Amino acid sequence: MTPIVTLVRRVLANRAGISAIEYALVAALIALVIVASVRLVGQQTAANIQQATDAVSRAAP
Question: I need a surface site. Which of 2, 24, 34, 45 has the fewest CB within 10 A?
Answer without folding.
Answer: 2
